[in-house]
Amino acid sequence: MDDAALSALVAEHSKADPHTREGIEAVLALGNILKNEPEFSAPGTIVTGRGAYGWLPQFAAQKMFSLVRSGRGADAAVAWLRKVPSITKGSGGAVKLLYGVQCASPVALTDDIVLLPYGKLPPSSMLDWIVREHERANESPVVHGFTVAPSAALFRAGVVDPILRDASADWQNQPPATWFNDLDDAARLLALIPKAIPREAAHWFHYDDPDVALLGQFGLTRQGIELQPTMVTAPVEVTAAAIAGVFSAYRQLKKGDIQRVNLALERMIRSRCQFVSGNRAIDLAIALEVLFMNADRDEHSYKIS
């Protein structure tokens, strides 16, 4: 189909309200039209950071409608679709947005991971949505209390190459998925700051180019924790001096020791979320047991038990 005819169809179908049944049917209808376009001649997987989705006509239709509704128009939506095969890579960075910690200025945890103040993240539709979500929560008459906005973010700059991969490719053990594993480690290590409760608000991969972001971003991902800390507690300040050398020392540990340290840190974070002091003590005791109780440390095991 030529671009002018496709643009006319996109403009017509995009008039439907996306929150209605008609809006869903419009996406499916446009997807059915797009399936014969050359951009879908070969199956592929779009790596979105820690996840992936199939490069399918209905997903393209949804993204094209979002372009039209954002004001760029149907012609721009068709131009974006034609551009997709030439999008081979994208620069940006892995983002892990955090509650519970803050910093006055960027703090380098490693050569490639930095803790940023919330307001220093590069602007994006993902970040805008997070801001609006907290505003909506605090304005809602059915929400009791006050939802504190995220206070900092871990950021790992990088280039995703390629973005579009073979459907059978092992993308889960390659960047950018592995970069988020590093951010998880960094967040746990922030718990070594006294009283800090580093908790994830969301994570995503930020792309500098909006057209690449439209292809490579597909929703927010959140990792919840079992217990929610009180939201009236102010975020704990993280300084470069307090965290210097921690991540490099962590990376030098043996695999088994890393696993024990991770579990101990998770229990320590959990203890700080407890309201009952006895429960806090139990979680801290488990953290100590994880670190010291094994076949080579019988004396420690006896003392702790």
Q: Would you give an account of this structure?
A:
The protein has helices spanning about 5-15, 20-35, 55-70, 75-85, 125-140, 175-190, 210-215, 240-245, 245-250, 255-275, 275-290, 300-305, and strands spanning about 45, 50-55, 90-100, 100, 105-110, 115, 150-160, 165, 200-205, 235. A five-stranded antiparallel beta sheet has the order 5-6-7-3-9. Strands 2-1-8 form a three-stranded antiparallel beta sheet, with no helix packed on it. It is built from twelve helices and ten strands. Helix 2 (about 20-35) packs across helix 3 (about 55-70) and helix 10 runs antiparallel to helix 11. The chain is α+β, with helices and mostly antiparallel strands and about 300 residues long.
Task: Give the topology, please.
Blueprint: H1 3-13, H2 21-34, E1 45-47, E2 52-54, H3 57-69, H4 74-83, E3 90-99, E4 101-102, E5 107-108, E6 113-117, H5 125-139, E7 152-160, E8 164-165, H6 177-189, E9 199-207, H7 210-216, E10 236-237, H8 240-243, H9 246-251, H10 255-273, H11 277-292, H12 298-304
Parallel strand pairs: 4-10
Antiparallel strand pairs: 1-2, 1-8, 3-7, 3-9, 5-6, 6-7
Helix pairs in contact: 1-4, 2-3, 3-4, 10-11
